What does this fold into?
Amino acid sequence: MNTFTLLIGVALMYATPMVLAALGGVISERAGVTNIGIEGMMTIGAFTGAAVGYFTNNPWLGVLAAGLAGGLTAILHALASITFKADQTVSGVAINLIGPALALFFCRLCFDGSAVTEPVNAKLPKLFGDNATGILANLNVDFMVIIAILATVIMWIVLYKTKWGLRIRAVGENPAAADTLGINVEFVRYVCVIISGILAGMGGAAVTLSIVSQFSQTSIAGQGYMALAAVIFGSWLPHGAFLACILFGLAQALVVVLGGGAVSVPSEILAMLPYVMTIIILIFFAGKSRAPKANGQPYIKGKR
Amino acid sequence: MEHNTKPVNAVEMNGIVKVFGNRPVLDQVNLEVEKGSVHAILGENGAGKSTLMNILYGLYQPDGGTIKINGQQVEMKNPSTAIATGIGMVHQHFMLVDVFTVAENIILGQETTKGGAFLDMDKAKQDVLALIEKYGLDVDPDAKIEDISVGMQQRVEILKALYRGADILILDEPTAVLTPQEIDELINIIHNLVNDGKTILIITHKLDEIKKSADKCTIIRRGQYIDTVSVKDVSQSDLADMMVGHQVNLKVAKTLMNPKHVIFEVDDLHARDVRGVEVLKGLSFKIRSGEIYGIAGIDGNGQKELLEAITNMIHVQGGTIKINGKEIQNTTTWNTITSGIASIHEDREKRGLIPDFSVEDNFVLETYMKNPFSIKGLMKQKAISDFAKKQVQEYDIRPNGCEKDLIRGLSGGNQQKVIIAREIANNPDLLIAMQPTRGLDVGAIENIHKTLLDQRDKGKAVLLISLELDEVMNVADTIGVIYDGKIVKEMPQDQATEHEIGLLMAGGSANE
It folds into this structure.
């Protein structure tokens, strides 16, 4: 029982950054803009969160700033892929290159040339306070987990129960149809890409302000790509992506829990688990789930 | 609002000019449409009629001219302005979201909500059902678009416009995709709409439908305004002449055939469709040099699979296909082409062309690796361009000088001309044309029929597969009726009657 609750707690902790990033992927791709750049936006968020959290001693300000930084980075992607109709994959890859580079640059600038930030004094608060024991201690996740769950619910409601959701999905499926009905395709896409960046940035901060307490160059190591895999595995549904991330989180939790020496599996092999799982899932599910029809295509008026 | 005392035109477009790049598409075009009338816009493919309507709907900005709606001058900045002025448009390529329901598609952009944000689908369905009943547009509001027929999708498009309070409805080639029965239903719907005071604009090149449904007709030719006529005062051939600019023969003028030896022979062919069901069940026929063999029949009796078997896109389970005595079944498409068979497939955008390639590249899809287009494995762009330029001139492919343009941008008739020019350039012994005139206007149809006859008169064999009985009766020398995967009867054209063929096509027998 103890091991099980520990597994769940650790899985939730590791899944949270990916859930936020994957929700970002869902909303961006539902509007028809592929966002490969999630990894880069997460990295920027991870650094900004750690740095602001350190200087202000307030982790919530860190999360806020991380969202802002992610959103600003996303504007670059939106400019390139929506306004200038560039190839969205190329633009996303560029974001993934510029993200870690900017993070490192500002890190050296703010922390006396160091490639890692100073540890923050206050991490994000835990659900059951700092003195929980037993099962509560195992399940004592931080508030980002709650935020990620709330965000999933809110995104589902927005996408399926509101007029904005209807418009977002229409823009991602058939932008020309939306355009002829007076919906501003570019505006909808801008909003969705920026929200995507905000969520990815907050996901990055969830790594540096709750899982660890500082930013280093390996803070974000593929979580953004795993989030993208989760988007596909989850069929571009908010709850689908959420569950997929929980699965990836479980894989990472296994690494942590089993890595303690309970079983004699080399830790290197265990550490590969989440990544191997991502590849296997993509092999078996990428072809089967149906992407939004206009995903990845710039909308050019009048093109038949 | 009624204007009984002083009639005001629902639409007035004056001196509309539109230039794409440096190519004028519309030059000083005028249009006056009376309120409560059905007004047809007639023109060949590429004449500019769709462009004119897209300007009225705010999708394109004119480079000159003015638009008045109900007497008020309006600047159509975008479709929203048009919708607000009471204009609705049903595009030729439907603008629907496939995974949405009918009701969701209709309310998109003008959603019924609770509290300004949350969708109220119950209210939406009620509103939609009210419209459906009022105008007799039978369609299920809960059905998904991808599950309903093309005719129903068109009704959804009409409902979309009505839901937005459209008083002026533009229909772009509304019958191109419909079955004859659906066309009759559409004409009924149009009458219902006009009786309710709506104004209908129909873009078309089908003359019989203009006679059936429209009050007035404006003719546009190559971007020029020609005339506006009262439909009841003119005949179909008058309309055709005005549209094309010269005398058109709606009947094909042809001489008697002079057949010689057998060039092409299909014997006891058996083949299955994609689902594995046998659809060719022992089909046989022969075509001689100097003969056009027409296959008449209702869609889905094996026509598609016959063409796929000949072009080696599917394998056959039995029987032979011979060209000049050589068997080609169950080999490769390349073998079909090099054995002297050229084919015009039904769906040009899928099988005849690469829409995102230029016109000139589409011209050499089968010959790019041959001298002079390629020398030592390197493509010679100059030779390709020269060839394309010559063909564009010879076949009068418009717009002139389009060799470097994407073929996607050409009209259907001109795309078809590119395919035909390319196929005939191979100097084939057998030319197969499946539905070669689908969606084309009378000028283009005349042109294509002439080309088929030219091939025949050069001593080649031609196989025409068409779902339009008129076309087969007009063009073919010998008619074979296909039913349930077999040629059930074969007869010379001059001994065939529409009545008999119609019976055979439906599986009946002339002796009964």
